[in-house]
């Protein structure tokens, strides 16, 4: 199915020069994006309403054509070492789709990953490229998942294999979502 | 992603008559046919540990029973165990359920890897049985050989000089002839079938997952489980040509060779969720996308028949440009190619199909896609005898497509 047109209020979003669309008017707090100088977003990325980005803890890097849907929290993880506690930076690759109300404490999410709604990615976990996290999964801390795995359950395990052309599908889906994410006062396209 | 675009709703018919989503299909340009995983052969490319992403050779993996020696799983919950140090020795802790190796009889280790595995309690017995079977096989082989040798008596003689080690071979063979039985302890009968009321006792019994993780543990205290290796497969068509092969390395996603069907066949997709009402005239919006690298000529014919949605739209002939085709940059205007074509957008075409629904449950919509094959990308000759000169007659490929209109 083609992705439908999603409209947004133009006043609520800020569009940067590189094409990022970031929601500035949130319902849960006046400001949900902290440490903006530590957040690097490559371009054409959509950060929707009520998404919390904790850039004040450590660096958050997000690639191109990423979609972070409503209510997701991206929070760098803390690890207690012998000498001192360390915050791990979060790296998210290109064309990553994060659905609603996820909690992301991961250290690394590769490109072309789809994270289902209400999933919890535990402390400093690593999800390699082309994976899919099923909705309501709980990935345990420090877990590593190889490319092309379908991840699900609590604690999350590999439950299947993603198709070989996941990269192409994911690029198409995220680009289509970005193209169909339009301000509500624009005239609607005649097709979806 | 297959789930985001719901590509499972549209199924294509593979050359083996199975219906699969386009994302699961491959195209063999030598057979000129669609192939699925079922009708092609999978080969193991590489074995690797899913947690440390170390790859290992086949012989090494076989020696280690297809397990990674440095990564361990919790025997209780299956999470990856973390290594902790105390007094310059190592022990393992599960960060999920807090199980540690210190709870069991496993002492702290000097090295962080090479943790002891759960021993098979019947190991000795199995070895004895294997030994006995080997002995029996030897005897059988010797009897067979003796029968053959009797026919050729010249072969049973002695050699005086042992220049080529033949004498040793003869001696070995003579020994097998002499040894009629192998001494192994007779298999002891086990106890009568145990029927106990243990399950009533308060002691927690292992769950099915835990038993499957360590099937031979029985009542022994659990030990850390070495992580099982995963394999990466390449796919080969029945004509021996490789369809999909990844580059070497456990974490790579780059392909040496890929023959995804979506790079050769246009993708049919439902454009909107169809709103079907019983008895009324309805319409279904589909979109057709050309992901290939060349222009495509095709016809789309709705099929009607037993168990299919009745569609009144006739045959639609289309010419689809490819994604990077600059000649059609301003091609958003409607072309007069067919009434059914609603919009054109670069390499994408929107089509409206008129359907009528009589029953409550919508049957799938059948389409027949006839595609003119462009063989210009085939550089190698198909066979050695065949000439590379392309034939004047255009080759057409017919692919039946089924669209599920109601998500069950």
UniProtKB/TrEMBL annotation, chain A:
Question: Keyword Repeat on this protein?
Answer: no
**GO cellular component assignments:** dynactin complex
Q: Which InterPro entries match?
A: DCTN5, Trimer_LpxA-like_sf
Query: Which CDD domains does the record match to this protein?
Result: LbH_Dynactin_5 (cd03359)
Sorted alphabetically, which keywords does the UniProt record give? Cytoplasm, Cytoskeleton
Instruction: Identify this protein by name.
Output: Dynactin subunit 5
Q: Which domain of life is it from?
A: Eukaryota
Pfam families linked: DCTN5
Where is this chain's protein located in or outside the cell?
Answer: Cytoplasm, Cytoskeleton
Please verify whether the record's keywords include Cytoplasm.
Answer: yes
The family classification in the record reads:
Belongs to the dynactin subunits 5/6 family. Dynactin subunit 5 subfamily.
Automatic annotation (TrEMBL), chain B:
Predominantly, its location class is cytoplasm
Q: Where are the transmembrane segments?
A: none
Alphabetical UniProt keywords: Acetylation, Coiled coil, Cytoplasm, Cytoskeleton, Isopeptide bond, Phosphoprotein, Ubl conjugation
GO cellular component terms?
A: cell cortex; centrosome; dynactin complex; myofibril; stress fiber
InterPro entries listed in its UniProt record: DCTN4
User: What is the annotated localization of this protein?
Assistant: Cytoplasm, Cell cortex; Cytoplasm, Cytoskeleton, Microtubule organizing center, Centrosome; Cytoplasm, Cytoskeleton, Stress fiber; Cytoplasm, Myofibril
Q: Which domain of life is it from?
A: Eukaryota
Assembly and oligomerization: Subunit of dynactin, a multiprotein complex part of a tripartite complex with dynein and a adapter, such as BICDL1, BICD2 or HOOK3. The dynactin complex is built around ACTR1A/ACTB filament and consists of an actin-related filament composed of a shoulder domain, a pointed end and a barbed end. Its length is defined by its flexible shoulder domain. The soulder is composed of 2 DCTN1 subunits, 4 DCTN2 and 2 DCTN3. The 4 DCNT2 (via N-terminus) bind the ACTR1A filament and act as molecular rulers to determine the length. The pointed end is important for binding dynein-dynactin cargo adapters.
The record's comment on protein family reads: Belongs to the dynactin subunit 4 family.
PANTHER family named in the record: DYNACTIN P62 SUBUNIT, DYNACTIN SUBUNIT 4
Spell out the protein name for this chain. Dynactin subunit 4
């Amino acid at each position: 199915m083609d992705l439908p047109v999603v409209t947004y209020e133009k006043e609520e979003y800020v569009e940067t020069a590189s094409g990022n669309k970031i929601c500035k008017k949130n319902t849960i707090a006046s400001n949900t994006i902290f440490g903006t100088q530590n957040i690097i977003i490559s371009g054409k990325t959509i950060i929707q309403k009520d998404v919390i980005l904790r850039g004040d803890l450590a660096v958050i890097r997000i690639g191109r054509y990423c979609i972070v849907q409503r209510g997701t929290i991206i929070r760098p993880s803390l690890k207690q070492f012998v000498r001192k506690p360390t915050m791990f930076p979060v790296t998210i690759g290109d064309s990553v789709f994060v659905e609603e109300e996820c909690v992301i404490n991961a250290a690394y999410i590769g490109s072309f990953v789809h994270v289902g709604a209400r999933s919890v990615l535990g402390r400093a976990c690593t999800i390699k490229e082309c994976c899919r996290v099923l909705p309501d999964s709980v990935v345990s801390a420090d877990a590593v998942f190889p490319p092309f795995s379908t991840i699900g359950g609590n604690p999350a395990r590999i439950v299947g294999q993603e198709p070989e052309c996941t990269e192409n599908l994911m690029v198409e889906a995220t680009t289509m979502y970005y193209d169909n994410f339009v301000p509500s006062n624009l005239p609607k396209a005649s097709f979806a | 992603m297959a789930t985001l675009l719901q590509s499972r709703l549209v199924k294509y018919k593979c050359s083996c008559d199975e219906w699969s989503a386009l994302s699961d299909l491959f195209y063999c340009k030598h057979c000129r046919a669609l192939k699925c995983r079922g009708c092609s052969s999978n080969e193991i490319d590489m074995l690797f540990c899913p947690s440390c992403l170390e790859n290992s050779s086949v012989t090494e993996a076989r020696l280690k029973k297809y397990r990674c020696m440095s990564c361990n799983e919790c025997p209780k919950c299956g999470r990856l165990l973390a290594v902790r140090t105390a007094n310059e020795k190592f022990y393992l802790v599960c960060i999920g359920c807090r199980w540690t190796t210190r709870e069991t009889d496993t002492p702290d280790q000097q090295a962080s890897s090479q943790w002891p595995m759960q021993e098979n309690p019947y190991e000795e017995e199995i070895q004895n049985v294997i030994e006995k079977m080997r002995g029996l096989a030897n005897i059988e082989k010797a009897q067979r050989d003796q029968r053959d040798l009797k026919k050729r008596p010249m072969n049973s003689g002695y050699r005086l000089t042992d220049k080529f080690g033949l004498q040793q071979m003869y001696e070995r063979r003579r020994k097998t002839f002499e040894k009629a039985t192998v001494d192994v302890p007779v298999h002891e009968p086990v106890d009568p079938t145990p029927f106990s009321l243990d399950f009533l006792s308060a002691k927690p019994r292992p769950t099915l997952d835990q038993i499957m993780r360590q099937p031979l543990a029985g009542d022994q205290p659990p030990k850390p489980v070495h992580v099982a290796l995963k394999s990466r497969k390449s796919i080969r068509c029945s004509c021996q040509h490789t369809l999909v092969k990844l580059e070497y390395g456990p974490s790579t996603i780059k392909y040496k060779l890929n023959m995804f069907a979506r790079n050769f066949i246009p993708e049919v997709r439902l454009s909107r969720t169809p709103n079907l009402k019983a008895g009324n005239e309805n319409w279904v919006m589909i979109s057709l996308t050309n992901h290939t690298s060349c222009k495509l000529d095709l016809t789309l014919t709705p099929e009607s028949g037993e168990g299919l949605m009745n569609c009144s739209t006739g045959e639609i002939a289309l010419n689809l440009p490819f994604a990077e085709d600059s000649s059609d940059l301003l091609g958003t205007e409607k072309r007069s190619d067919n009434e059914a074509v609603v919009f054109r957008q670069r390499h994408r075409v929107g089509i409206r199909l008129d359907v009528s629904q009589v029953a409550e449950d919508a049957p799938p919509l059948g389409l027949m896609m006839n595609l003119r094959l462009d063989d210009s990308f085939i550089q190698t000759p198909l066979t050695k005898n065949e000439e590379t000169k392309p034939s004047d007659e255009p080759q057409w490929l017919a692919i039946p497509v089924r669209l599920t209109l109601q998500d069950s």
